[in-house]
Amino acid sequence: MNILLTGSSSGIGLQLARDYLAQGHHVTCCARNAATLLTLQAAYPTTMRSCLFDVADLQQCRDQLESSGPFDLVILNAGTCEYIDVSAFDAESFARVVETNVLGVANCLELLLPKIEQSGSLALMGSSSSFLPLPRAEAYGASKAAIEYLARTLAIGLKRRDIAVSYIAPGFVETPLTDRNDFPMPMRVDVEFASRRIRDGLARRRPEIHFPKAFTWTLKLVAMLPDGLQRRLIGMALAQ
After folding, report:
1. Per-residue pLDDT of the chain (240 residues; tens, 9 = 90+)
2. Of 32, 140, 183, 235, which alpha carbon lies 20 to 30 A from 64's?
3. pTM of the model as a whole
4. Beta strands of the chain (E only): which ranges?
5. Selecting from 1.50.40.10, 3.30.1330.30, 3.40.50.720, 2.40.37.10, what CATH number does the domain 2-239 have?
6. CA-based nearest residue to 122, from 90, 91, 158
């Protein structure tokens, strides 16, 4: 397959890039970290193409992506996370998260949607935080909820081209982003586990890929409860 992957220099994206390249696929790896891209390029000189740009910059996206493609699979994985203290709400922090996680995806979609082959696949990296409102995740959760909605609407619009659209909703995964967290992360999994689940789900053209199931199904079940009961349960869990 010809694959394009954003956010491919760390965390889940880096592991996906390594695994797809190891399987012999041609992968266009997009990221801001030149050193990591060079290391990947050295390991896979004939099947890996690097694109150095910031997804939040539309002109950089155009410069790097206009001449790329076509692709059988596009994975828009690049993202960031900043937690907010609601007692001192930081609009600039909120804007930074939305700019990368939402507008960055939109920038890439403008360039890449026409380049996905008939019967190809598109995957958007979300989070299980979109299932349930969680304290301090005002910016991150809102950005991923937007991506979930976007994935569902794109699936309708792209059906006529038989393009499968997948929303990826991990729980906690061991990455440089979660390493900064200062709170418990139940059922956290490693990037190898995450990559296996994502690649398997994409191969099956699943509309939603969420894991680990014990964690994500718990969130989904709590989300079905009345709002007041949800808040009580979340408050009890945080108090422990």
Report:
1. 999 999 999 999 999 999 999 999 999 999 999 999 999 999 999 999 999 999 999 999 999 999 999 999 999 999 999 888 888 899 999 999 999 999 999 999 999 999 999 999 999 999 999 998 888 889 999 999 999 999 999 999 999 999 999 999 999 898 877 767 767 778 889 999 999 999 999 999 999 999 999 999 999 999 999 988 888 887 776 655
2. 140
3. 0.93
4. 2-6, 26-31, 48-52, 71-76, 116-125, 164-170, 208-211
5. 3.40.50.720
6. 158
